[in-house]
Amino acid sequence: MKRIAGALAALLLAEPALADGLVENVNGYTLDAKGRLERFGGLLIGADGRVTKLLDRKDKRPEKLDFRLDGKGRTLIPGLIDAHGHVMALGFQALQLNLFDTNTLAEAQARIARYSAEHSSPAWVRGGGWNQERWGLGRFPTAADIDAAVRDRPVVLARVDGHALLANSAAMAAAGITAKTADPAGGRIERDAKGNPTGLFVDAAQDLIEKAAPRPLPRERDAAFAKAQEILLGFGITATADMGTSVDDWQVMRRAGDAGTLRVRVLSYAAGIDPMISVAGTAPTPWLYDSRLRMIGVKLYGDGALGSRGAWLKAPYADAPGQRGLQLLDDAKLRNLMSRAAMDGFQVAIHAIGDAANAQALDAVEELAETYKGDRRWRIEHAQIVDPADLPRFGRNGIIASMQPVHLTSDRLMAQARLGPARLTGAYAWKSMLDAGARLAFGSDFPVESPDPFAGIAAAISREDPAGQPAGGWMPEQRLSFAEALAVFTSGGAYAARAEDRLGTLQPGRMADFVLIDQDIAEAAPGQIRATKVLETWIGGKRAWVRK
What we know:
Blueprint: H1 2-14, E1 21-31, E2 37-45, E3 51-55, E4 67-70, E5 75-78, E6 80-85, H2 87-95, E7 97-98, H3 105-118, E8 125-130, H4 132-135, H5 143-147, E9 155-159, E10 164-167, H6 169-175, E11 187-191, E12 197-203, H7 206-210, H8 218-234, E13 237-245, H9 247-259, E14 265-270, H10 273-280, E15 293-301, H11 331-342, E16 347-352, H12 355-368, E17 379-382, E18 400-403, H13 405-419, H14 430-436, E19 439-442, H15 453-462, H16 482-488, H17 491-496, E20 514-517, H18 526-530, E21 534-539, E22 542-546
Parallel strand pairs: 1-4, 1-5, 6-13, 7-8, 8-9, 13-14, 14-15, 15-16, 16-17, 17-18, 18-19
Antiparallel strand pairs: 1-2, 2-3, 5-20, 9-10, 10-12, 11-12, 20-21, 21-22
């Protein structure tokens, strides 16, 4: 009897379980538990949208299936996870005035004037993406620069990093901004030699303009979210951390979920304690809409951005000796906010770009870790400019360094000007973070950068820009291997958001989120990886997007 039972058990193990779907004839690879590439030729998908089994070419295929897809030898990889993005901002950027690709102020002025003429409503012209470094302007733009294009209606334009607003004279008048308007805590109003506002509002000062601007209508928000999803799916992004979800943003996502149009998985971090409590109450929300939406934590701001000189530095800027950036929260307030979130089990994500802000975040984590023990997964977002002496601290207390490799390729020359070469040893130090024991999760900070994860993977393994500069990579000792780069855009992003039980790999039991692409990127050169095109994006075992 035992011999018969053993033979039956062996037979059952040899036969693949019945599955609802099979994707076969693919060049598939995912990551195993040790972060190594695991290759397969077929993917069995269960009725629950999860992976049932990875198949070698010799494995027997089930006969009864709801669907069978011939991959035609194409490469299949896990769905990509952007660990730091701004979903609604991405959608609004695509639907509003876009200055990202403008190379001069004159080009931007012409586009602003044309957009205003072609769009009589809404009353305010909104847009963004300007970058004075790309324009070669040598200064920040001013209200007068925008008045030259549009004077008769308010114009508000966000800088590429989202940490500064440029307003024309009409917008400042509508907001009641005068020379007597004081700089708010955590913000800066740029002023001329006479003390008059120039039209540039940095970090918290942006609220002085925003409070006067009309709020988007619900239908406008819904359209922006739908557009953002389409963009993300087209880049093979199946899940993203939304860093700074407002209550209005959450309602948009809930409406999409209720309507059955929520396709991308959104891992939400509230835009402060109040939205966190308003949405989630006393604990992270459960997974909603078949694991497509969850509020897991809160986003806090330690400083601003490097481009607007809002990043908080330990020493003055090399190109602005009187400035050290902006400390947005004092030590006591940062700890109080972190404690308020941690006491109810929310995850804390701290924006820190400058070395002083990173040191402050590390200090706070070290102190609070004594009270809030266990697997807290404290996140430091960007970790862009770090004092080398602080790098080992990222390997303690379960810290996750949530970084964006494309920032290096965009900001390298600016960073050198802002800090000087001697202070860049700990900048964009991905490999040093790994060696110190930190967990990495990579993203793009879209729409500050394109959400294209293949550009991020290429930057991570080469530390070269799209033109291949600098040859051999900037600080090449910080390069990652391909397996490491793929991991931080998949399993790393899942782990960072406490979603590794269902996302991040194609191991059995995980959601069948995957991407079919036009080439095998495992052995490709960085330039080839950048050129990768997504052919199909699948979420939960269902096709969510296909290239037309």
